[in-house]
Amino acid sequence: MxxxxxxxxxxxxxxxxxxxxxxxxxVQGPSGSGKTVLLxxxxxxxxxxxxxxLNGTDRNSISGPDWRKQVRYAAAEPGWWGETPREHFAAxxxxxxxxxxxGLNTEQLDQSIxxxxxxxxQRIALVRAVIDEPEILLLDEPTGALDAKATAQAExxxxxxxxTGHAVILVSHDPEQVKRLADRKLAIRSGRARMGRV
Length: 198
Prior knowledge:
Elements: E1 2-8, E2 15-19, E3 24-28, H1 35-42, E4 49-54, E5 57-58, H2 64-70, E6 71-74, H3 96-101, H4 118-130, E7 136-140, H5 148-163, E8 167-171, H6 175-181, E9 184-189, E10 192-197
Parallel strand pairs: 3-8, 3-9, 6-7, 7-8
Antiparallel strand pairs: 1-2, 1-4, 4-5, 9-10
C-alpha cells in the first residue's frame, strides 16, 4: 500500500519500510527525535529525498494537494483557518455519526473555535482527518489532550478506519495505546529508525 524507500529527512538516517492495508504502525522516540518531521515528509509537507509510493504511484508524479487527499497528516495541534469548525468541512450531512461516536454534537460545529476546549478541538480535527477516508492517516499524538473515555472513543474511530482497509501511522508516547492499536512500531533513537514488534 505505502512504500517508503530510503527517505531522508532532517536529523534521520535514510528510512525504508512498507505499510499494508489495515495496518497500524506506531512511531516512537523521545521528543525532538524526528517523529513529526517524518510524518510531515510522508505527507509531502516538508522536503525530503528518497521515494514514497502509494499503491505503486510515486509521490512525485502527482501534486501535493492530491497526494494529501490520500495521505492525510493530522497535527498534534490542529490548524484552523475558519471561525467555526463547520467551515472546515466540505459537507456536513455525514458528520452526525462520527461526531456522536466521539462524544460530540453538531451544535459544536457552529461554536467559535476559540470557545472549544483543547480536547474538543482535537476530536473534531480527528473527524476532519477521517471523514473522506484517506488511504493513509498520519496521526501525530491524536489523543494527547483527551481523557480516558475520549481516548477510547478516538481509538474506536481509528480502528474502524483500519477495518475498512486503510492504514495508520501513529505517533504516540503512550505505550499502552501502542499495544492497543499498533501492529508494529518504528523506534527512532539517535537519528536511526528501526522497525520492530510492539
